[in-house]
């Protein structure tokens, strides 16, 4: 089926009729001939309006039709029109001819730049076929010669050699002085400090130990000495200590009843007001006897000890059963995280036992040893009272032993 496109010259425009003029001279009638043009690259359907527009520009008329199956253009016109078509169609064919070309990239990445290249090539509205080849870092572009020329310009615009980045030269290493210094330790052994500091700073440091002076000798840079000084300051910190004010008294049972300390072997905590009243009552009670007032300064976790009387059991003359001949106590304080003091108290009381008649009629006085182990938790500055075993006073009457303890924490200081 033939599609026909008619092209006619416009002879005039609307308006009043022109005045009569002389009849023009007769022009010779041009012969109109049909002719078929077989197209190879361009489409006959797209070429038909382009040919008609070119003829109109030249002031020529022709009747144009095209056949899609055979891609043929039919032109019926004068010899001048056919000459114009013969001159114009090669340009249409040349512009429609498709070529395949490979553009290898030197600096840019084909995958990363593919989208940018397609956007720049299609700005004119003409579609382009571009396939990135990642293996060869290239573009494969299909299009006309004009499109290939445009593609070459686009590729050259972004496939540029990157500008070199100046890398500053590394500064010359500075010579680090080596310093030797000795660190005097007061609260920790030099051997233990050397192990701890060596683990913290690394095994490449060398440490020497001055055992007689308990010193840590270090050889290294100023930075090493700064780190060692900080670690030694933490390791050689004076540990916290506890002052324990103790009082051992021998009181009659009535005193226990008056003060509410009626539970034998019991432990009682006294507040500030109760402690004042207890001290007043103990000071003015007529038949009480203070056996000892020791005061111990003990490091946290260490054990303090005090003793009253001879270490060997000696029975005084005229002693009766139950008379106290000596006493001692071991006290171990432990400072808790909340500031309270956990006291482990181990008192021991030696007293005269009932006499024993030997075979020769000699009376012997054995010695009883009574010991207790107990643990009590007291606040800093709080007083606790431990009721000990029942004994006999110097007047021969029954009495009870009281151990009164008041721990106070001494804050540690940096060396």
Automatic annotation (TrEMBL):
One of its GO terms (cellular component) is type II protein secretion system complex. Coiled coil: none annotated. Residues 101-162 form the NolW-like domain. It is found in: Cell outer membrane. InterPro entries: Bact_Secretion_Sys_Channel, NolW-like, NolW-like_sf, T2SS/T3SS_dom. Gene3D superfamilies: 3.30.1370.120. Residues 288-390 form the Type II/III secretion system secretin-like domain. GO terms for biological process: protein secretion. Keywords: Signal, Transport. Belongs to the bacterial secretin family. This is Type II secretion system protein D. It comes from Urbifossiella limnaea.
